[in-house]
Amino acid sequence: SDAPPGSLPVLDAPDSSSAMPTGKSIQRKKWTVTKTGALSGLRLDEDLLPPPGPGEVRVRVKAVGLNFADVFSVLGLYQATPQTPFVPGLELCGVVESVGPKRDDLPTGTVVPSYEPGDLCMAVVRFGAYATAVNAPAHQTRPLPVQWSHSQGAGFLVQGLTAFYALKGLGDIKRDQKVLVHSAAGGCGTFGVGICLAVGAEPIPVVGSEKKKKTLMERFPSIAPNEIVVRPKRGKNFGAAVRAACVNVCVRKNEPDLETNASCDIVMDATMGDYFQGGWDNLNTAGGRYVVYGAADLTPAGDLSAFDVLGWAKLLWKYLRRPFVDPTNLPGSNRSVMGFNLIWMFHKVVALGELLRDLTNLNLPPPPVGETFDFEDAPRALRRFQSGETTGKVVLV
């Protein structure tokens, strides 16, 4: 059965909570969005965090993972954004301080980890992670794997599950399939490439620069350099670059009939914009699946205040020029376009639990942490993240 929106399953663990509950409120720092549209709407303030409620654990936050949803929510461009004021952030890692009373209304199949004070855990919350202490639903937490750092733990749940749902839940990834992975040097993209290799598929990573290509090859040395696409500045040249990478995979594997085999079975895209068409044109007509989970091309270069006429005009121009696919042509082309936002799926407790278990069973290495910022530098971290120049996970510590 399904749980209310806001719940996320964890892997199998004892269904109990052994840490002692506490009735004390504590002082904490938090970043609050007082007004959307600009990073200047973020304010660092303090409040009292009440004791953890039924089914909650209090976590002393040691690291907060940044996601594009954070940028979009601060700018007011994210559909799931709460009303202001709100605390942004979806994932964190830290130390369990106390556990609230047991919650008995969770659906069958939901597993709640058992914690003692001092245990390390990762958590997903539906906003609220940008704080020094958080009360998180216990079933939305996972114990931090041994030898993982807090920063690595803050980069696993959201991006790992996003990539795995895109490739497995929707893409139905299989061995030997060719998979075009956009933003492959970023958080979700790195997971996407790792998942492909773990299941025996052939990733065709897309990166934004030669520097990012080098970073990707250091993490995945088995990928041939000529099978990595450095995204051209002009979108109209992207399709040819993807085609060339597909051909290179076919040549390496001695696959005959390039006309049929030199194409992608899955495209994992959070870029869109001018680079959609090149991927779509190279999606095979034997059931190819184009999976969309974001639109970084629509990310504003800076703030979007109500009086920023030029900024809104640029965003409107990109929006009006966004790609379209005629659904009446899909049966004839034997391809599909799929889209999802993980935050709208938190209530699918059992299904996401199975995906999370399967993801963990792949034994992927911990996510790479590209840059860390002090907690007090959250606006600067978001600005840096917004630039599109980062690799790996960006984390507040």
Question: What does this entry look like structurally?
Answer:
There is one protein chain. The chain has 397 residues and is of the alpha/beta class. Helix content is 28%, strand content 21%. The chain has twelve helices and 15 strands. The chain has helices at residues 68-74, 150-153, 157-170, 187-199, 210-219, 238-252, 258-261, 276-281, 309-320, 330-333, 349-361, 378-386, and strands spanning 26-33, 42-49, 56-65, 91-99, 120-124, 133-137, 141-143, 178-181, 202-207, 229-230, 266-269, 288-292, 335-339, 369-373, 393-396. Strands 3, 4, 5, 6, 7, 14 and 15 form a seven-stranded mixed β-sheet that branches. Helix 3 (157-170) packs across helix 4 (187-199) and helix 3 (157-170) crosses helix 11. The chain is globular. Mean pLDDT is 89; it is low at 1-21.
Largest sheet properties: 7 strands, mixed
End-to-end separation in angstroms reads: 37 Å
Oligomer state of the chains in this structure: single chain
Radius of gyration: 21 Å
Strand content: 15-25%
What is the H-and-E element order? EEEHEEEEHHEHEHEHHEHEHHEHEHE
Structural class, judged by helices and strands? alpha/beta
Mean pLDDT, all residues: 89
Number of helices: 12
> What is the tally of beta strands?
15
Label the overall shape. globular
The percent range for helix content is 25-40%
| Uncertain runs | 1-21
